[in-house]
Structures are given as structure tokens and as C-alpha cells.
TrEMBL record:
Classification via InterPro entries: CdaR-like_regulators, CdaR_GGDEF, PucR_C-HTH_dom, PucR_C-HTH_sf
Protein name (database record): PucR family transcriptional regulator
CdaR GGDEF-like domain mapped to chain residues: 299-432
Signal sequence segment: none
Taxonomic lineage of the native organism: Bacteria, Bacillati, Actinomycetota, Actinomycetes, Mycobacteriales
Species annotation: Mycolicibacterium peregrinum (Mycobacterium peregrinum)
Family: Belongs to the CdaR family.
Length: 555
């Protein structure tokens, strides 16, 4: 491979003085600033007629022109000019020289054209050299990428080219690949590099070449001084992370820094593409696993062999003990991809209470998060306790991430994959009831025993007839069913119901009289209240069951 750019390759004032063309030149002022960079040379008369910045620019003049424009030296220095090249003897009456300006007196006449050609050749030569090195670095990494080497191999190649450790960070600042760092060194260095890349940069210090590259001294293990060089990974308008080289030297040479910058900048596109490819593979695998989980909770495999073959592919033990947890996938704000956001929520929930022997599988069905989790406990009492603890932790985690309280429901434990379908159905019934009753937190199917008993008769004809006869007439009038529901929820207390509905007590009594007339029975009597309560519960269960059946049939 072509040697990397040497000493940044940029022309400096000292480098210009070392050229044969400048033999006999004498530094009149600014001998302590000979290491400053020079990129171009312009004649004095052209410079004075414009007002552009003169950073890294040398100004050429003849002695007679300088005599006529001696007062312009301060203006040149203020505009950033580094050097004044006098093609002849500097006038003795030049006056005070600005501290930031180097003045060079040429021993023999050189002429502007020769100086201009010299600097142009050096600048173009350096650009070509950097471009050639960049192209070869890119080709080396691209060759590995196209052979499917993977992220770790790409970062290893970056580290080998840099002859120093290298890391790749994702958009959240997590290390996704590294090479050349011992485990005990990774944590402090990743923290330091994260602090470096997350710090803001003033607009005046941002680079104009499109690369977001940071070079900064960072703190390594045991408070040692390192130098970090990091370039941002951007694919289109999307920020994907960083590629960084870590040098165990507080002040590496300019040659090395230039080499590290080229490496990180060329690596960003290749490493970013591999990160994007790997994420696509992970998402595809997660979708396939989610499809399996959906088939598992719906019991929709074509055969036992189909279920076991797919379970083996996803490394899922079908004979384990399972618990099914469901929660509404309500997001705190509108997002571009709600399904992906809900999957992330479910993934966060699945990562709670980790244990080496416990596995969790997630999916999203409609607007519901589903987590199927294996259980460690063997006894039914211990399994219920384990499920309750996890459901409570999941509820708190979802509330923390969304800022909204919501129920997390679960059914009875399933012994083997064959019972997962029923456990899921119980969890969905419990969730449907909890949502309609505005319950939050952990809710088990067992806690709703009154509903679970009624669930056995919900779909019978006598049940449907009771719902039609009791609730049908109430649906014909405005607010009658809601008023009656509030009345029953307050235990038949007229005053409490009036306060809950924010109406006058007399208005409440009038509404109860109207409801009694519509139903043909005195709603104030306890046995009639029980009949209506039963009809409302049966209707609620029927709605929940219908929603679950629609979901299963849609699949």
C-alpha cells in the first residue's frame, strides 16, 4: 500500500525556506512561527483590493510596493495572513511589524510566478497523495465488506492499518466492535470517547469538507493520557455512530494524526454499511421469531412437526414452562414507525429480571405487546409469584419509558408449548377486562375470578338473551347505560354517583327513575342491581372474546 501522508505533507514557512528556490532568503521577523502552514501565495495588490480571509496565505510584494503600502501590514495580519514575502531588500523605514506576521526577505529575485507554481505543485501533490492513500484504504475495507467479513473483521483491519486500537460505536454510544483493547481497558476508554463525541463543537471550529471528525486527548485506564480520533458515521441523513482510533500517546505526530483521520473517514461508509446490513439481518430474524411467537400463542402451526422444526430453528425449548404477558402498546407521542417502536418497548420489557436460565420472546399483535417468558420455578405457587414479580416490573418499566400507566396482564402458567395458546387467551381476556375497568399495574387472570367463572357461560344463548333484554333498551337512550354503570360502581349510592357524574342529586334520581321504567324493574332493589351488573359483565366478556377471536381468525 502507498505510504500514508507524511507529516501532513502541508507546506510550512520553514518548508518553503528549505526549497532551492528560496536559497539566500532571510527571516526578518517571526522566527518563532516558521512551523505555520502555507497553502497559497497572492500578490499584495490583489490582496489589498479584496477583503477575504487570508488564513495560511503568503503575500508576495516588491520593496517599492511595500513602501507605498506599509500601513497595510496590520490589516494583513488581522485577516490571517501568515507570511509577507519581500522580493528584494526590506525597506529600512518599514515601521512596526505585527507579532503574528512572518516577514521573509528574498536574497535573489524570484518573482511571483515561480513562487505561485511552487506552492501549487506542493499542494496538488499532497492532495493526490492523500487521495491515493484514501482510495487504497477504502479498497482494502470494501474488499473485506464485499466478502462478508463482518463488523469485527472490519474494525480489526482499521486497527491494523492504524497500528493502534480501534472501536465502533452505535448511535447510542454503545461499543459494537473493537480490536486491540484488553477487557479492563474497554470501559474507561469507551466512556472517554463517548464524552468526546457527544460534546458540542462551535460552528467556527466545524470542518467544511463534510466530515465530522474529532481529535482530542482523552483519559485512558489509570488516568493515562491517550489521543482519540473519531469520525461520525452518516448514511444519507441518518446518524449511525462513530469509528474511532485510540492512540496511547498524548501527543502523536502530525503524520500519525493525518493517517488516523484518513482511516476513520474512509472507514465510516464501510463500517456504517455493515452495521446497517447487520441490523437488517437482526430485524429479519426478529420478525421471523415474532412470527413464530404469534403462531405459538394462536396455535396456528400446520402440524406438530412444523412447530418443532421452527422452534429448533429459533432455539426455543418447547417442553419448558412458559408465562405469557400482554400490555397495550400505547406510545407517548406520534412516531414514524409505531410497530418498530412497540417492538423496542417489548424488547426492553423482555430484558427485565435477566437470568441465565430464563429466555423471553417478544412480538407485537395489533396494538398489544406480547412477551412469552420461560419460568424457573416448578411448583405452581412459586410460578405464580415469579409471574407476578415480572408483571409488576414490566408495568413499571413501560410506565417509565412511556410516561403512562397501563395494565400488564398474564394468564395461568403453561407447562409446555401446547398450553401457551390458552395462557395467551387468558392474558388477553384479563387485559381486555383491565382496560375496560381502567385498571393499571399487574393484573392476573386469577385475580378476576368473578369474570373467569362468567367466561364459561358468556357465549351461551341464555347469556346473550339476558344481555339483549337488559342492555338493549338502555342503549336506545343517551347516557343511560353509562349512568347505570356509574351507579352500580358506587354501590347504589345516589349521592356518590351524582358527585362522580357531576350532576345534581335530583337529576340523578330522575335518571334512575327513567332507567327503571325502561327496564321495567326498580333498579334500586339489590336483586335487580345484580341482574344488571351480571348483564354488563357478560357483555364486557363477550366484547373481549370477540376481539380475540377476530385477531385469531385474521391471522
Amino acid at each position: 500500500m502507498t505510504a500514508p501522508p507524511a507529516d501532513t505533507g502541508r507546506m510550512t514557512i520553514q518548508g518553503l525556506l528549505d526549497e532551492a528556490l528560496m536559497s539566500g532568503a532571510r527571516v526578518v521577523a517571526g522566527t518563532d512561527r516558521l512551523g505555520m502552514e502555507l497553502s497559497w501565495v497572492l500578490p499584495l495588490n490583489e490582496v489589498l483590493s479584496q477583503h477575504d480571509p487570508l488564513d495560511a496565505v503568503a503575500v508576495y510584494t516588491r520593496p517599492e510596493s511595500l513602501t507605498a503600502n506599509g500601513a497595510a501590514l496590520s490589516a494583513l495580519a488581522a485577516r490571517g495572513a501568515t507570511t509577507l514575502l519581500v522580493d528584494g531588500v526590506v525597506p529600512p523605514d518599514l515601521g512596526p511589524v505585527p507579532d503574528r506576521l512572518v516577514i521573509v526577505e528574498l536574497g535573489i529575485p524570484v518573482g511571483f510566478a515561480a513562487l505561485n507554481r511552487l506552492l501549487a505543485e506542493r499542494a496538488l501533490s499532497q492532495e493526490v497523495h492523500v487521495m491515493r492513500y484514501s482510495t487504497q484504504v477504502h479498497a482494502s475495507l470494501a474488499g473485506l465488506f464485499h466478502r462478508g467479513a463482518g463488523l469485527q473483521i472490519l474494525i480489526r483491519e482499521v486497527a491494523n492499518l492504524a497500528r493502534n486500537p480501534a472501536v465502533a460505536l452505535d448511535a447510542r454510544g454503545q461499543v459494537v466492535a473493537h480490536h486491540g483493547l484488553a477487557p479492563e481497558m474497554l470501559a474507561p476508554l469507551s466512556d472517554s470517547i463517548n464524552a468526546m463525541v457527544t460534546a458540542g463543537i462551535p460552528a467556527a471550529e466545524r470542518r467544511s469538507d463534510g466530515h465530522d471528525t474529532r481529535v482530542q486527548q482523552i483519559t485512558g485506564p489509570n488516568e493515562t493520557a491517550w489521543t482519540g480520533v473519531a469520525s461520525a458515521i452518516r448514511l444519507g441523513k441518518t446518524f449511525e455512530g462513530w469509528v474511532a482510533i485510540l492512540a496511547p500517546d498524548p501527543a502523536p505526530g502530525s503524520h500519525d494524526l493525518a493517517r488516523y483521520e484518513v482511516l476513520t473517514e474512509q472507514a465510516t461508509a464501510i463500517v456504517g454499511s455493515e452495521m446497517l446490513r447487520q441490523r437488517s439481518v437482526d430485524e429479519a430474524e426478529e420478525r421471523a421469531r415474532g412470527d413464530f411467537v404469534q403462531a405459538l400463542v394462536h396455535g396456528s402451526f400446520s402440524s406438530e412437526h412444523d412447530m418443532r422444526a421452527r422452534a429448533e430453528h429459533h432455539d426455543i425449548e418447547l417442553d419448558a414452562r412458559f408465562a405469557v404477558f400482554v400490555a397495550p402498546g400505547v406510545l407517548p407521542r406520534r412516531v414514524d414507525n409505531p410497530t418498530a417502536s412497540m417492538v423496542r418497548l417489548a424488547r426492553y420489557a423482555a430484558g427485565l429480571a435477566p437470568h441465565p436460565s430464563v429466555h423471553a420472546y417478544v412480538t407485537v399483535i395489533g396494538d398489544v405487546l406480547v412477551v412469552v417468558r420461560t419460568l424457573r420455578a416448578e411448583e405452581i405457587t412459586e410460578m405464580r409469584r415469579e409471574m407476578a414479580e415480572y408483571a409488576q416490573a414490566m408495568s413499571l418499566e413501560l410506565e417509565r419509558r412511556r410516561g403512562l400507566r397501563a395494565p400488564v396482564a398474564y394468564g395461568r402458567p403453561a407447562r409446555g408449548a401446547g398450553e401457551v395458546r390458552e395462557s395467551y387467551r387468558e392474558a388477553r381476556v384479563a387485559l381486555g377486562i383491565a382496560r375496560r375497568l381502567h385498571r393499571t399495574g399487574a393484573t392476573s387472570y386469577q385475580e378476576l375470578r368473578g369474570f373467569t367463572v362468567l367466561a364459561e357461560v358468556t357465549e351461551t344463548e341464555p347469556s346473550r338473551q339476558l344481555v339483549r333484554e337488559v342492555l338493549g333498551p338502555l342503549r336506545s337512550g343517551p347516557d343511560l347505560l353509562e349512568t347505570l354503570g356509574a351507579y352500580l360502581a358506587e354501590g347504589g349510592n345516589v349521592n356518590a354517583t351524582a358527585r362522580a357524574l357531576n350532576v345534581h342529586r335530583n337529576t340523578m334520581l330522575a335518571k334512575l327513575d327513567r332507567i327503571s321504567r325502561v327496564l321495567g324493574m326498580d333498579i334500586r332493589l339489590p336483586e335487580n342491581q345484580f341482574t344488571v351488573w351480571l348483564a354488563i359483565r357478560l357483555d364486557l366478556l363477550d366484547e373481549v372474546h370477540s376481539a380475540i377471536d377476530r385477531e385469531a381468525s385474521f391471522r
